[in-house]
C-alpha cells in the first residue's frame, strides 16, 4: 500500500498534536514541517516520537549545509527520517545519509527546484538515499501542478530509493497521483486546513489501497 505522510506546518506543537489525534490511524509518516521545526526547534521531534513511537517521525529540515552535524542532532532528538535538498552539494547530501545509516535510520532528499532531474536522481540514489521526493514548491503552487512527469523521471532512474510526491496535493488529485505509482504521498494543507481532517485522511488512504 502507498504510504501517507502528513506534513504538519503549524507554528506550535499543541496544534500539531491536536491534528494528529484526529488523523493518526491513516498516517504512516508524521512530518515536523519546516515551519514547525523552525518555530519549536528539534525538541518537537522527540515530543512527537514519544507520543507516536510506532510511527515514523520526519524532520523536514531541507538541509542545505551542515548535513552530517545537523542531521545527527535531529536523529538523536527523535527523528526517524531527515530531509536535505538535491540542489545542494554532494558532501551535505552524503552527510545526511551517513548520519542516518550510522544510526539505523533513513534519509530523504527533496528534489525541489532540481533542473537536471534524471542525472541527479541517479547520483542521489547511488549515494544511498532511502527516499527521493518530487516536490512542487509551496511558493510555486499557483504556477504549476503536481509534478507527475517528474515522478515518472524519478521512477525511471532509481534503483533502490523509494519515490514520493508532494506539493498542494488534494483528495481530488488522488486518482492521478496514485496512477503515477508513488511509494508514498506527502499531504500538508489539504489536511490541516480541512474542516474534517479525518475524512480527508481516510479518503486519501482509500485511494492508496
Ligand atoms: O515542504 C513543504 C513546503 O516546502 C510542505 O510541507 C509540503 O509541500 C506539503 O504541504 P502541502 O500539501 O500544503 O503542499
Automatic annotation (TrEMBL):
Pathway: One-carbon metabolism; formaldehyde assimilation via RuMP pathway; D-fructose 6-phosphate from D-ribulose 5-phosphate and formaldehyde: step 1/2
Name of this chain's protein: 3-hexulose-6-phosphate synthase
NCBIfam families: RuMP_HxlA
Gene3D superfamilies: Aldolase class I
Catalytic function, reaction form: D-ribulose 5-phosphate + formaldehyde = D-arabino-hex-3-ulose 6-phosphate
EC number from the UniProt entry: 4.1.2.43
Domain called Orotidine 5'-phosphate decarboxylase: residue spans: 3-204
Keywords on record: Lyase
